[in-house]
Amino acid sequence: MCGIVGYIGPRSAVPIIVESLRRLEYRGYDSAGVAVLDEGACKVVKSVGKINNLAELLDQEPLEVKIGIGHTRWATHGRPSTRNAHPHTGNSGKLAVVHNGIIENYVELRERLTAAGANFTSDTDTEVIAHLLEEKLTNGAGGDMLEALRLASREMHGAYAVAVVSESCPDRLHVVRKESPLVLGLGQGEVYIASDITAVLPYTKTVMVLEDGDVGVLTVDGVSITGLDGRAIDRKVLEVEWDVGAAEKGGYDHYMIKEIHEIPDAIRHTMRGRVTPEGLLNITELNLSADEIRDLKRIYIVACGTSYYAGVVGKYLFERLLRIPTEVDVASEFRYRDPVFEPNSLMIVISQSGETADTLAALREAQRHNVKVLAIVNVIGSSMYRDADAVFPTLAGPEICVASTKAYVTQLVCEYLLAFHFARLRGQMADAEVNRLVAEMLAVPAKVQQILAQEDDYKTLAKNFLESQDFFFLGRGLDAAVSLEGALKLKEISYIHAESYAAGELKHGPLALMWDDVPVFVTATQTDLYEKTVSNIKEVKARRADVLALVRESNVDIAQHVDWVIKVPDADNLVMPFLTIIPPYLLTYWLSFALDREIDQPRNLAKSVTVE
Ligand code: M6R
Question: Which atom of ligand 1 is least distant from the CA of 304?
Fold first, then answer.
């Protein structure tokens, strides 16, 4: 996820900015840049790739300055390139901005500003901020940057943390925040800006965390915060006790649990820009024509590991909502099974990294047969992002733990939004039904937060399984699809053997393994399949296995049949997967924690599998 830094004070700003950017490297990035005021003149230096590339450029022409901003970019709008790297400037080149977040209405703003004479030089949403500020400075704000920021903020929809350096006010930096994190580090006669505390920790432990709607003016004399309405705000100053390692993990012990806690925001980000603030589905970014979507006869979903399991959910969804036969394949098998490619087909590849060798090979195989490929990827600029015919990125932010969690959930978000979009275009869902399901999805982040708030229960629950050698997962319908991912996560991190079966398969083999104390995690939230799943629970209990049941909050009768009950908030059957995956994630984490496993880097596994 993009990182913002900045400095104003008596010391040399460039080394501080570069060092602060390095501290944000763990967030992931594909380009970096700085903007400073050098004897009053705005200068921008940026480059693609690692911060070392930027540092080398800065070394070639050292800048001895006391004020500046910097940025690491994780591409969302426009590929990784120098022109898309931040900071961005307006026509005059006299002010520069760095931005973290998404300006949802940037297309409209860009059109309006272009018509008014703005000359855009990048593909980013961020550049509109620079042009908008230039416009406001001369038209409405009377040259006052603080007022220009307020006026611009009123026109920008979405999430943003922004820092600005400008020739018009050489003794100050400006910042504004809405829904994207921004902290200020407070030193003696100096102020630091950063997206998170990590970047300022080497310099100061005194910080101020900005909140939505805060606009800040930063000078060597200190910080002044006001609201968008101009009213003064007194934000708390905190003393942080974290060391740098803890700060990168946001205070958590591992990236895995940090990333699980990021799921609500990851869902929000992935929906943002695809659902209007009024809750209406609005997908305009797909490089597939309405006719191509209407004519679709078959969908192939191809992926590996967790992404494949997201594809299994997709199969249920596409077949149910679109009535299009949908095959879902493990990528390593796909091309070797000599698949039959039919006309009017679409391949959907799903990948967090966008680099998985088998999935890439499947993409190429489809293209060789003239089948279009749509990629659901998390890493913008990755091989799949570049090579697919259409892309629909997940906006989960970088995932650092080898085990995928927030990426899986956002892969589901993309599949759901695509299914609604396709179904509407094909006349299979009325607007009212699409709106109802989108509303259900908009309610998901708060429900996930409700589950996360009960995290302590999972710490306690995990203690029951410290000696377990095997774990079984059962479910029906969408519950079965999600159980596959639950079992993968458990085996991957805890090293406990875990298998997932469709509950209806029990009698066809696995029932032989149900005996004393074998833990069985049964998910039973699909209301139409509930009675049948309860019958399976009884079969398992009759063999003296231990059952942990995951049910809806409204379920009052399950407790009599099982050993432990976990509840998740009620929701439409279709959106239940967003909720039912959280308990297996939490149980996996706390069980692996108790077993002292290498949680973020489990043995023998890699984050990106770029070989067959
Ligand atoms: O980057 P991808 O999504 O293509 O990776 C696919 C799998 O390697 C990945 O999901 C793997 O199964 C994870 N370790 C699961 O947590």
Answer: 6
Strand 206-209 vs strand 158-166: parallel, antiparallel, or unpaired?
A: unpaired
Please name the residue that has the structure tokens 């080898």.
402
Torsion, CA 52, CA 606, CA 356, CA 75, rounded to 10? -40
Distances, alpha carbon 270 to alpha carbons 160, 228, 370, 411, 435, in Å: 15, 26, 29, 9, 17
CATH superfamily of 3-246: Aminohydrolase, N-terminal nucleophile (Ntn) domain (3.60.20.10)
Which pTM value belongs to this model?
Answer: 0.76
Asked whether the CA dihedral 426, 410, 403, 611 is positive or negative, the reply is: positive
Q: Are 224 and 185 in contact (CB under 8 A)?
A: no
Q: Are 348 and 300 in contact (CB under 8 A)?
A: yes
**Element spanning 598, H or E:** none
497-534 pLDDT, tens digit per residue, is: 999 999 999 999 999 999 888 999 999 999 999 999 99
The rounded distance, in Å, linking the Cα atoms of 57 and 36 is: 14
d(CA 16, CA 206): 17
With a 6 Å cutoff on the Cβ, whether 394 touches ligand 1 is no
Residue positions annotated with a catalytic role? 2, 607
Residue 19 CA to ligand 1 centre (angstroms):
32
Q: Architecture of 450-599 per CATH?
A: 3-Layer(aba) Sandwich (3.40)
